[in-house]
Amino acid sequence: MSSNDRMASFTYTGGPVAASPRTLAGLGQPIPYEYEPSFLNRFRDVERKVAEVFETDQDIVLMQGEAVLGLEAAAKGLCRPGMTALNLVSGIFGKWFGDWMRALGVEVIEIEVEWNEAIDPAEVQKALDDNPAIELVAVVQSETPSGTVNPMAEIGPMANKAGALTIVDAVSAFGGSPVRTSEWELDITVAGAQKCLGGPPGVALVSVSDRAWAALEANPDAPRSSYLSLLDWKASWIESGRTKFPYTVSVSDINGIDAALDELLEEGLEASFARHDRAARACRAGVRAMGLDLWAASDEVASHGVTAVTVPDGLDNQVVIEHVRSAYGVMLSDGEHADMKERVFRLGHMGPASRSLNPVVALTALGQGLADFGVSTDIGAAVEAAMKVLEEPVDATAGAAVS
Does residue 242 share a domain with residue 121? Predict the structure, then answer.
């Protein structure tokens, strides 16, 4: 068996992340008929637990596909030709959302910042004031490829006060940073299980406000009788008393997500936020001590889930990542898409990877991999700096910074 055929021993990527033994046990349960009463009860329980992590009493829809399914469903459900929308771009996923909206005939006003920065709420307020026709605001809370976050606690209420609906990509924030859906007055919020939750990547976790349901129902272009239809879930599942699915359910994924949610909620949301925050701070401290440059312009805009490191000049990050995987059994990430792909290394610290000494393993693997290609790195200083942070007790009462 070649090294290319063997899975890495350690996974520190932008997701999917390695699952815990408890989640793997959930995924390994027998596959039931989706209308088995015990499974119906589990599905309802998963909705309730997802709502708890979203910190909301809004309706929850568990769409049976990776999180992008939920984002595209939201776009196609709310967008219609001729409407005006504000798209906030701080990375590749924000850019994609603008492309979707333009393809749907929307007049898109865009605020774009450098992809190592965050959106300025003052610019959002100005755009809303200058363009009262805006009906929709789209934003990515946590841009995984660039390892940055946006200030949703400020943006959400601004949009709501202006009478605009919000679509929020919270895929890599869910479980690792606060996603205060109701408090921040968000309308459609989409998350995935494969990031900070440490679950399987087969289900989109979607929170839908009453305002969003009304807009979906009023839009003649919203998908119906379609796998992209949120309205199908409302009619078949929610309004039927949660007894009839519109499509076959990914029962094994639901079992795994249920186990991952139990593990998270037993730990406590604030404790999880603090754990991810500490792992991120440890990685940033280690990167700086190693003599490398962080991609995020400041700690204030840096993600709790992944640390992006600028690729040193003249180096091919793809070659280094493959070398680190084959030589040391550690899987790191590049920037994943388009302009970001070759510009950064990403050290993922989501889910189980945020625990224990995992940040140190990730830093050591990157440092040694770079040293193997002639880059001067101080691995000892990186480990010492990271350990200084990791020795701090996790203060769950303090919580993590709100992004």
Answer: yes
Residues forming beta bridges with residue 309, ordered by sequence position: 294, 345
d(CA 197, CA 23): 10
Q: At what angle do helices 379-390 and 269-290 cross, to 10 degrees?
A: 160
Handedness of CA 191, 194, 195, 199 (dihedral sign): positive
The pLDDT tens digits of the residues spanning 262-283 come to 999 999 999 999 999 999 999 9
Interatomic CA distance for residues 276 and 331, integer angstroms: 19
Domain shared by 220 and 237, yes or no:
yes
Q: For residue 200, what are the domain limits? A: 21-264
What CATH number does residue 350 fall under? 3.90.1150.10
Residue 189 token pair: 């919020």
pTM: 0.95
Query: Number of folded domains in the chain?
Result: 2
Find tokens 């008393």 and name the residue: 241
| Angle, vertex CA 323, rays to CA 321 and CA 324, nearest 5 | 65
- CA 181 to chain CA centroid, nearest Å: 14
Q: Specify whether the CB–CB gap between 73 and 223 falls below 8 A.
A: yes
First to last CA, the chain: 44
Distances from the Cα of 364 to the Cα of 249, 278, 283, 287, 370, angstroms: 41, 17, 10, 10, 10
Shared domain check, 44 and 96? yes
Closest CA to 115 of 267, 295, 289: 295
Residues 217 and 361 in one domain: no
Nearest CA-CA partner of 204 in 46, 350, 340: 46
Please indicate, yes or no, if residue 396 is contained in any of the structural domains: no
Give, in order, the Cα–Cα distances in Å from 163 to each of 46, 121, 212.
31, 16, 12
- pLDDT tens digits along 273-325: 999 999 999 999 999 999 999 999 999 999 999 999 999 999 999 999 999 99
Radius of gyration of the chain (CA): 21
Annotate 228-293 with DSSP letters as a single string: T-HHHHIIIIITTTS---SS---HHHHHHHHHHHHHHHHH-HHHHHHHHHHHHHHHHHHHHHHTPP
Label residue 11 exposed, middle or buried (CB < 10 Å: 0-12, 13-18, 19+): buried
| CATH code where residue 87 lies | 3.40.640.10
